[in-house]
Structure formats: C-alpha cells, structure tokens
Amino acid sequence: MADRVFQPETLAIHAGQIPDSATGARALPIYQTTSFVFDSAEHAASLFNLATFGNVYSRLSNPTVAALEERVAALECGRAAVASASGMAAEAMALMTMLQAGDHVVAAGALYGGTVTMLAVNLRKFGVETTFVDATRPDAFAAAMRPHTRAVFAESLGNPSLTVLDVAAVADVAHAHDVPLVIDNTVPSPFLCNPIALGADIVVHSATKYLGGHGSTLAGIVVESGKFPWDNGKFPGMTEPSPGYHGVKFYETFGDFGFTMRCRMETLRVYGAALAPMSAWQILQGVETLPLRMERHCSNALAVAQHLRAHPAVSWVNYPGLEDHPQHALMKRQMKGASGLLAFGVKGGLQRGIAFIESAQFMSHLVNIGDTRTLISHPASTTHRQLDDAQQLAAGVKPDMIRISVGLEHIDDILWDIDQSLAKASA
Amino acid sequence: MQDEITTLRRILAAARTIAVVGLSAEWHRPSHFAAKYMQAKGYRVIPVNPRYDTILGERCVARVEDITEPVDIVDVFRRTEDVEPIADGAIRIGAKCLWQQIGVKNLKADAKARAAGLDSVMDRCVKIEHARLFGGLHWVGVNTRVLSARRPLVSPGTTVL
Fold first, then answer.
1. Domain termination site, one of A224, A254, A286
2. pLDDT value at position A363?
C-alpha cells in the first residue's frame, strides 16, 4: 500500500512528534537540557563523526527543537529544516552557509528592513555584494545576475510592500544561473503558500509570526527542498572536504539534506543562535492551529481591506486579496489566501495616520506581525527607519503607510476600533 | 522497486546480516559511514571488496557468491551498470533483499530480483532509511514522513536512542 500523503491540517498537529520513546508521553516533552550522555567513547566518536545520528549538545540539536524542525519541513514540503533563535538568525544562517567573500546576491528590493540591512551592510562587510531589484519583475532579477551570483533572495509576500513574488518565474531565473532561490515565507506561512512546490530551494521563516501566532516567542527556521544540485561546481563548500568539520563532504555524505546538515554543523554550531527548547515548544503549540488561524486571519483581513477602501477618511488601501490589487491573480494562483497583513494611508497624510495609531483602543501599536491580536504600526519610522528615503521607496514603504496585522478578534470589534480611531484622527 | 514505509520497515526489522558490495575502507566515504552505522545498530556487515582483507573488523569477500553464510540484504554501492551480476549473485546465495543505494537504479536488476522473490529497493540509502524509520534522522530535522500515535519501534537487538 502506497504511503498516505497527509494534508497540512494533519501535518500541523502530528509531523515530527510521535509519543516519547521512554515515557509514552503524547504531548511533546520539553527536553530542558544542555547535553546528552554518550553510551561509550565509541558512541561519542561516532556522533562527532556524524556516522550515527543522535543528540550531543543543545546548541546543535535538541529533541524538542527537532519536533519543530521536522514539522515545519513537512508543512513546507521540504526535506529537512534547522531552527534558530529568531527569523533574522535563520536568514543569516542560510546565507552564511551558502555564501563566501566575493559572492554576489540578487535580492528583491521589497524586503523586511532588517533583511535589507543584513544584505546591504552586514554581509557587505564580509565581501558579499547585493543588488536589489523590483520584486514584481522576474526580468529584473535576470538582468542583475552576475558570474559570481550565488543566491537569489526574496519574500513570497513582501512585508510591508505586499508585493507578491512570482516564485516559479524567479526560480527559473535562479536555476538558469545554477544558483538557489531563497524565499522568506514568513507572511503567508506554509499553510497559505509553499514556495518549494513552486520551485524555491531554501525557505526561511520568522517562526515568531504566524507559525507561533501568539506573539510570545522568538524563533526562526531554515528549510531545504532537497532538490538543489549542490554539486554543479558553484558550491565547493558543499562538495569539498569541510575544513570546519574535519573533512566531511556534506553533499556526498548526506545527499538531499546535506545543506541542512552543513547549516547545522558548520554555521549553527559556530555562531550559536540556537533555539531554546522551551521556545520551540511554545512555537509548536501555535503550529498545531496554524491552518485554522490562517483562514481567520485571511477572512478578517479581507473584511478590513474592503471596509477601509469604502471609508471616506482613507486615501489608499493595499491588500493582495482585493480584486483590483495588481497581483491579485498571481496571489490566487500560488496562495490559498492573502494572509493577514495590509497597508493603507489616511487622508491628510502622516500626522493623521499617527493620530489613527494613537487613537486605537485594543489594536496594539507595536512592530510584530502574525499575532492573535490586531497590531498597527508606521513602518517608515519603525521597522524601516534605518533605510534612507530611496531604500524605503524600494522596499515599498510610503511615508504615510500604516501597516495592520489583522488579528483574530471578532471582525465587528476590529472594524469598530478602526472606525473610532479614524474618527478621532480625522476630527 | 519498493519504497513504502511498511515494506522498508519490514525489510530492515527482519534483517540481521548485510553484505555491503563496494564497501570502502576509507572512513569518510558514504559506504563506510553507512556500514559502520548499521554495525552500530546491531547488524552483521560482510564487506564485499576484493581490494582489502578486512574492513570494519570483518573479513572481506571478493564476490557475493563467495559468502557462505545466510545473507538478508545485499546492499550495493556500485555503478548502476554493474548491478546485474550482483543481483544474480544475491539470488544465487538466497538473499532476501537486493538494495541499491542512492543514485544506483538498475531496473533490470530490480526486475530480476523481484521475479526471484526477493524484496528490491532502489535509489535509497540503507542508513538513512534505517535512521528515518527507527529514529535518529528525526534528531537532525529531516522530514521522515512518519506519523504515528505509537511509541517508536526499534530494530531488534538495539537500544532506543
């Protein structure tokens, strides 16, 4: 009998966690331990040589964290995953594992501000150059490719630009140049969009957002498709003996999860941004209800977008779930829904927008997204403040933009708080 | 070719002795990794390699046909075009399963083995499948595709890790 292919709703609850072998515990135990005993000196040597799989030290792997890793790998249709202490750490680990000095990255311009800074400032310090291009134009990615380009990076749904990336078209561009496409899939979450099924090679998440969903815990994760041919000559670090891990050839030894093993044993082990077991457990409590929550985030956000567009105090609304969004058809093609993030401008400009934010009763003024709570912020002065005016526009951040991460409160109450805040702001 | 979870689990749970064709004596080669792992999990490994006397503490034989004791799995680390005579050898010595490693996919050898009543696996690593189905691979974040409400099964003769 062929193996059953389980649906995301089932994977979100079960993948990566079977009852505890020692106790039979059904819920996931929190393995709050730094280290794990060896059976013998031979067992220790075997683990360090990666000749057998097991736990050594929680900076490298931990059973509670492993449950999160396998579950997100399953939800993303991926082969393997490695978790990290935050979404930024996940992006850094993915890029530092595949890049070295002299390499070049082609990235979407419409990215989270911290990601732009990492590429334009931090990685540049180590000799990695990035060219930023218009995320809505696959031909712009193609035009920016250079002989030393080693990665293409973009968000499946831009935050806060809400541009939808044509993942399949940009994957074709990357693959025509024998380099991987790295997708930040934080805003749709794996329930709404599977970049790997569309051709992406690596997916990163800030699991802090929709995966966790409760706004209590930081976490990140890197997922590998298992399909990228790392032995194409452009990634000697994957095929040559690793000087960072006593001569192991990661691709030859581990095949379709070789990138994840290298990310774990070379990058995570050395830079140390490991996810705490307690944090992994908290994120997993959220993942179990991800499909249900995403459906409600989507329906609430669409209702808010329609309400705002009809509101006399609002000058513009940007939500890919609206039929007149320029990429609505693309969104429908590659996503189950447009997620819970939208942006709008208040008539009268920035000051009225700030008055809107400060007038809210239960909508929270803060810079997270993907919470159960409805969150509002002004990106130009917060998440994207480190960028200059041109970079802000390239990232899709308009000076008067208000971002809403629509939560799971009753839709009538959300619309009520929006209306009363707009009334105060426009008074 | 067989690759369902229940079949692979049955093959690996029933097996005791694995003949590893093309087993390298060099510790960093994939065949050495795999055989050493299977040894650590309680399987008897018989190296099939005419270039060495012993590997992993076991006496080498030159060909599968030279093995005189019962063999459960003939595990092949050779090029695809070289597998057919190995399949013949596996059938001749009464092995239970012909197992072609990742990247090894000889369809004729697969058909021959199945026609002779052997289980036949292709393009799979015996170590990775063992680790996937009996625990281990999960610890490094791999999507094992195993969903279960029962405690993990372990292969006979090994401790739960």
1. A286
2. 98
